[in-house]
Amino acid sequence: MSMTIHVDIVSAEASIYSGLAEMVYAPGEIGELGIAPRHAPLVTRLKPGEIRVDTGKEELDFFISGGILEIQPHVVTVLADTAIRADDLDEAKALKAKKRAEDALADKASDIDFAKAQAELAEAAAQLQAISRLRKTR
Amino acid sequence: MAVGKEIKTKIASVQSTQKITRAMEMVAASKMRKTQERVMAARPYAKKMSQVIRHLAQASSEYKHAYLSERDVKRVGIILISSDRGLCGGLNSNLFRKFVGQLKQWNDAGTEVAMASIGSKGEGFLGRLGGKVLGSVTHLGESPSIEDLIGVVKTMLTEYDEGKIDRFYIAHNDYVNTMTQSPKIVQLLPVYTEELEEELTHHWDYIYEPDAKDVLDQLLGRYIESLVYQGVLENNACEQAARMVAMKSASDNAGTLIDELQLIYNKARQASITQELSEIVAGAAAV
Fold first, then answer.
1. A66 and A95 belong to one structural domain
2. Which residue has the higher pLDDT, B254 or B141?
3. Cβ proximity of A136 and B260 under 8 Å
4. Do the beta carbons of residue B45 and residue A10 sit within 8 Å?
5. Does B128 reach chain A within 8 Å, measured CB to CB?
6. What is the DSSP letter of B163?
7. Domain range holding A117?
8. Of B65, B49, B61, which Cα lies nearest the Cα of B203?
9. Could you tell me how many helices (H) and strands (E) chain B has, helices first?
10. pLDDT for the residue numbered B264
């Protein structure tokens, strides 16, 4: 029997693949990696691309949009990104979150009014219930 | 019968309320199962990541990352994770109470606090509370994706990178079981490394491509994101469970109310029949 290496491909939202392989190919940031069992420990970032897992019987393909690859002598772990990532994209999202918070603060008055109205409504409902209970006991 | 009609209308209105609460209960029950599955599906990623980070902490790395080292606490950052909708019992108020308690502790210690929120209930709460709100995201729906969270997490991480906050927390509800949800405040940064034990007998290090700093930067960033994501998923599961329980008790209450009203109606009906009868009998006797 030939040597195998354990492969785990996981993303934040789901586990994608877990199993044994004879060879794994991954798109490393500074070049394509071919990983055979007993590879030296290595950590690298991944480019968007294809991960090929050769199980000896068949070859499986997984597309990833980036992520991190960790290699231990008997385990390969792919931590795949689910979102398309770039620094300026992240920045844009951060700005959006910030703006949203500012808008919400500017909108404070209406929110308080709503909360107040809600509280008044709850009070009125409680009063109604109390009245109906009084009526009943009479 | 005038009295009877009033009560009849009241019964009908309570019945239609009960129908709604019962439907909401069933919807929440089915959603709860799905959200739980999602929490389970997200676990392997965070687990694998913490394994890799543990390896990195153990390996004799030449580079010490800011996310792994403690510094003096002058300012802290916290993300408050809440639900988007109400009608889920005391779920959000319990969390907010715990949050305010923690804020008070920090205030007493003279620590400044920067806040951010996920979920519209939390957004409204922070707005009413006042104070510095850095970012906010709402309406993630039942199946939130990491992509929606990147922005708000990034604002906090940038603050941390720039030294504007020295610790980073999240506050969310932890799913214990269907009946119990406990509000929790968890420290994310600096990454808690005390429990990482030295297991290795010899010193070794990874080969880093392109270099240790870049890889660690990305890895730790993703790790924090995945922890926040897990918090959101947990909170979602809690929301559905709490809503299910709240709606169940609302349906039960409506049931008792209907029973009571029905009894009153029957009594009133019987009283009016008795009265009519006695009037007829009295009339016949007079003739």
1. no
2. B254
3. yes
4. yes
5. yes
6. T
7. 90-137
8. B61
9. 5, 6
10. 93
- Residues in a beta bridge with B112: B75
Q: Which residues of chain A have pLDDT under 50?
A: none
Q: Name the domain boundary from A86, A111, A129.
A: A86
Phi/psi of residue A95, nearest 5 degrees: -60, -40
Residues A113 and A99 in one domain: yes
Token representation of residue A117: 């109205």
Indicate whether B243 pLDDT > 90: yes
User: Which of the four pLDDT bands, split at 50, 70 and 90, describes residue B50?
Assistant: confident
Same domain, A44 and A104: no
Distance (Å, whole) CA B124 – CA B127? 5
Euclidean distance between CA atoms A82 and B104, whole angstroms: 38
My answer on whether A46 and A81 are in the same domain is yes
- B138, B154, B228, best to mutate vs chain A, most A CBs in 10 Å: B154
* pLDDT recorded at residue A127: 67
Quick check: bond before B190 cis, omega within 30?
yes
Q: Which residues in chain B touch residue A26, judged by CB atoms under 8 angstroms apart?
A: none
> B70-73: which pairs have CB atoms within 8 A and are 24 or more residues apart?
B70/B190, B71/B166, B71/B190, B72/B166, B73/B111, B73/B166, B73/B167
Nearest to A45 by CA among A63, A59, A62, A65: A65
- Residue B100: which of B190, B183, B192 has the closest Cα? B183
User: What is the distance between the alpha carbons of residues B114 and B166, in angstroms, rounded to a whole number?
Assistant: 11
CB-based contact B153:A89 (threshold 8 Å) = no
Q: How close does chain B come to A56, measured CA to CA in Å?
A: 25
- Within the 208-227 window of chain B, which residues sit less than 8 Å (CB to CB) from chain A? 208-210, 214-215, 218-219, 222, 225-226
Interface ipTM > 0.90? no
Q: pLDDT band at residue B95, thresholds of 50, 70 and 90?
A: very high
CB contact under 8 A, A41 and B204: yes
Q: How confident is the model at residue B193 (pLDDT cuts 50, 70, 90)?
A: low
In this prediction the pTM is 0.81
